[in-house]
Design goal:
112 residues; alpha+beta; five-stranded antiparallel sheet; globular
């Protein structure tokens, strides 16, 4: 297996690992209270909010990994986007058991 193929497989696996965390609401944490959006977002590297021209919340992009690879959670499109050099891989998620979008919408509206 070539290094290029290994990178593509690793990128795809990381994207699917994040999707699994979002859809199940389970991820590795030291919190005794369980998993929630606040704890998950505490480790986010950046959050970009997407709003309409009227200032209405539409979604957010959450940077959860950077460098090799860079991975964003896009709550507006319900996708996880992975980028590594010239490779990219995007996959959708169906359930948001962490309630990331709900939490970010509430935070966005509270800080306006």
């Amino acid at each position: 297996m070539t290094v290029d193929n290994q990178c593509k497989i690793q990128l795809r696996n990381q994207v699917h690992s994040i999707i699994k965390s979002i859809e199940t609401g389970q991820y590795e944490t030291e919190c005794e209270e369980g998993c929630n959006a606040w704890d998950y977002l505490e480790n986010a590297l950046d959050i970009e909010y997407v709003s309409s021209s009227r200032g209405e919340y539409l979604g957010a992009r959450i940077l959860v990994a950077y460098g090799g690879p860079s991975i964003w959670i896009n709550t507006r499109n319900r996708q996880v986007e992975g980028y590594w050099w010239s490779d990219n891989y995007t996959a959708g998620y169906h359930e948001d058991q962490l309630e990331l979008d709900d939490y970010l919408e509430e935070y966005f509206n509270d800080t306006r």
